[in-house]
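Team,

Forwarding the record for the chain on the shared tracking sheet. I've put the sequence and predicted structure together so nobody has to dig through attachments.
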Amino acid sequence: MAKGLKIAATALGAMLAFTAWMIAYLPAELLMRLPEPYTPFPMRQLQGTVWDAHAEALDLPRLSLPSVGWQATFWPLLSGRLEAEGWFGAPETSRHGRAKALVSNNGHSIRLEPFAAQLPLTDLLALLAPQFGLPLEGEIRVNGAWASMEQQRLVGLEGELRAARLLLKGTGMAIPLGELAARAETEGQLIRLTVRDVESPLEVRLDGAIQSSDGLWHLRGVVKGRTPEVEPVVNLLKMAGGGPEDGGARINLNGRLP
């Protein structure tokens, strides 16, 4: 009897060890075969396991993030949560970021906290407002913000975004515009947005919101010039559809998050 129990315990231990080994080494490529709505965005050259993986790029709508990777922890799964740290790019490049992700509710709820990122402004404009036609360059910096998603919809956002080294380029001109700051605060179904100048020859007063139910967003306000050098920028904003208002250009932008 004792010998039979010992054999059964050994067999059970071997089965558990084999199961643990299988789970630990599940290939990351399995994620790309999940059914909707769990299928992630396409990733190129995905390698590693579901717990520790990297890819050449993550392809979002109208934007590609380079050198994507993540490391996940197994034990929180026992309580129905997934904890992982993810990143893209390298700190010395113009496109990089890092965040801790908390996933729950069968993958329907995702919270990033805190996250930091740097992107060229052209990337952000292509993602959020492809219709925005100004030849504006610069870099976007986010540090210590958090975001929350439900069913692949942005439902919460808190923190500050800085647009630095802004430069308006055109035929025969390059006008430095300094730095702007955008803040986001969540109030129920709305994510409130404010944009103000920090160190800029422009006076910027913009307010808006993102509607979490459908991803629609708007940004409205006035941009004025503080120096003669930026008057061409204000005039360009007027011609772009804003029109004149209170000595400056009226801004009325809207779109939908991808």
